[in-house]
Amino acid sequence: DTEVTQTPKHLVMGMTNKKSLKCEQHMGHRAMYWYKQKAKKPPELMFVYSYEKLSINESVPSRFSPECPNSSLLNLHLHALQPEDSALYLCASSQGQAPTYEQYFGPGTRLTVT
Amino acid sequence: DQQVKQNSPSLSVQEGRISILNCDYTNSMFDYFLWYKKYPAEGPTFLISISSIKDKNEDGRFTVFLNKSAKHLSLHIVPSQPGDSAVYFCAASDLSGGSNYKLTFGKGTLLTVNP
User: Fold this and answer.
1) Following DSSP, what letter does each residue of A50-94 receive, concatenated?
2) Which residues pair with B66 in a beta bridge?
3) A104 and B46 in contact by Cβ < 8 A?
4) For residue range B16-29, what is the model confidence (pLDDT) as tens digits?
5) CB distance from A39 to chain B under 8 Å?
């Protein structure tokens, strides 16, 4: 199984809502990632977890809160978002954090903030 | 400041011909390069990689060439097939662990292979 699943596929939320994005992999990967991608832009790294510990936070605003409850799951908690946060949020996983380990991406969650 | 640049937003090629996608980088610390392919409504999929100790890596129809002095790499697809139509992202990283191994992506090139 080389699949990374993400739920939901689409999410519309108001600026006062609290919601969560979920990501799951069963490949035994120990590194998991959140990326944000705006239209016609490259994926931008937000967070990296390595062995369930936060390894990288790319100066992401605190309205985005990641969580890694176990080695298979990665959540992204959203609160008080702004319309400019509307984007495709991609989750990825790899055996390790080094770039020589292939990153497997999920299909993404399309987020719209109204 | 874009450290990885893909200057062609789109490329159109006839089936059976060669597709050449280009990528330039500015950060001299980058020593590992990857190409990802992305279909609509799917996440990016790893295609091929190359480390700076090589100047060429081949995998089936896909070959990546690296010119370190020019800070340029290219992806060749031969022969091109309609199923290759997708957005192709170039990405780069620093194997010494600088920037914590983060992948820096280019903006992507939309390849269309016409039957």
Assistant:
1) ETTEEEEE-S--TTEEEEEEETTEEEEEEES--GGG-EEEEEEEE
2) B73
3) yes
4) 999 999 999 999 99
5) no
Q: Indicate the SS3 state at residue B41.
A: coil
- B100 interface with A at CB cutoff 8 Å: yes
Query: A108 and B43 in contact by Cβ < 8 A?
Result: yes
The C-alpha atoms of residue B80 and residue B39 are separated, in whole angstroms, by: 16
Q: State residue A1's pLDDT score.
A: 65
Residue B99 has pLDDT above 90, yes or no: no
Pairing of strands B10-14, B109-114: parallel
- Interface check for B105 against chain A (CB to CB < 8 A): the answer is yes
Amino acid at A96: G
Q: Find the mean pLDDT for residues B44-50.
A: 96
Closest approach of chain B CAs to the CA of A105, in angstroms?
5
Q: Which chain B residue has its CA at the smallest distance from A108's CA? A: B43
CA A11 to chain centroid, in Å, comes to 14
Distance, first Cα to last Cα, chain A: 36
Question: Taking a contact as any Cβ pair under 8 Å apart, which residues of chain A between 46 and 85 contact chain B?
Answer: 48, 55-56, 58
* Least confident segment among A39-43, B46-50, B77-81: A39-43
In angstroms, rounded to a whole number, what is the distance separating the alpha carbons of residues B89 and A99? 15
Cβ-nearest to A45 among B42, B46, B103: B103
- Cα–Cα distance measured from residue A66 to residue B108, given in angstroms and rounded to the nearest whole number: 27
